[in-house]
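An instance follows:
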Amino acid sequence: MSVYQYLQKKKQELQKQIHYTEELRNYWMIKVAMYKSLGTMKVME
């Protein structure tokens, strides 16, 4: 395997990891937003 191929492979792996963390963060942001809106609804009642 050449250095170039190795770097390409590493780059792909990194992009997958970055994509995964983005997904996870979006998931948690949605969770938090839902939780907050539920909280404000309860307060308003």
The chain is about 95% helix and 0% strand. The helical segments are 3-44.
